[in-house]
Predict the 3D structure of the following.
Amino acid sequence: MLVGDTRVLANAAECVDVDPKRLVQVDHPNDAWQLPHDKIATFQPNPSLAWHDVRPGKPGPAAGAAQLAWVDFACDLVSTGNADALVTGPVSKDAIAKSGVNGAAEFRGHTEHLQRRLRAREVVMAFADKRFTSALVTTHIALARAPRAITSKRVATAIFWLADFLSKSQSRPVRIAITGVNPHAGESGLLGNEEITRILPGIELARARLDSAKIAAELIGPIAAEHAFRAALRGKVDGVVAMVHDQATIAMKLVGFGEAVNVSLGLPIIRTSVDHGTAYDLAGTGEARARGMVEAMKLAARLARRATS
């Protein structure tokens, strides 16, 4: 079921040569499951946007408020058991933050927002590709704040949830490389000591937690980020824990752009998304590729089937 503005969805369908008549607006989410398979259920939880608020590629405050409302409604559908998984498209963080909605000024991304809404104790942003998966210790924060945000506890949390995710799809112990944050992983403290004072203790905390959960994992690191991702690409490790956002996203988008899936680990619901941003320069042109969204839906379906099996 698509949650959004019905009129906007119909315009988008026409843009990519999908018959708008396939879109059927339902009055209640439960009605979606009664439709024929060739129909696409849509649900609009808030009033329609005015025409001047739906200019392709130029979202204003009203569009930002609508985006957040759609995410929240869809999230609640899953958390209450009325749907099995949440798949989100990219949103404009700036439009949401400037929307005037209560609490929206602090919006920095789906991951952090869903953690607050679901009152999740922990959440880890990860990117899953057919070749390997990468999890992040810090997410949408300024780079200047990242070194202080890299704590032993956060390192351990990212390692644990990545190992938990990987262990559910393979029978052998998972192999995870943990990056450093400084060049050459600090060179034994010569180029920075975060690897010694924060990352190494975090690895030990993760080992204890994994042992307690009976999750078999081989943890390697901290090692230089470029070495960790080369090892992952060669199949030497199953996953990489990166310390900062761009360590992971640059590597993932170089090797798997449009195929990697953003998955939130640690939430009480299944949530996946695309591995890219809004691409507002392509909005309304019909040229944007849907492969990333298709991959996100496929992974959500696999995780949902696994959860119910």
In short: The chain has two domains: 1-120+267-309, 123-266. The mean pLDDT is 93. The domain at 123-266 is CATH 3.40.718.10 (Isopropylmalate Dehydrogenase). The longest strand covers residues 217-223.
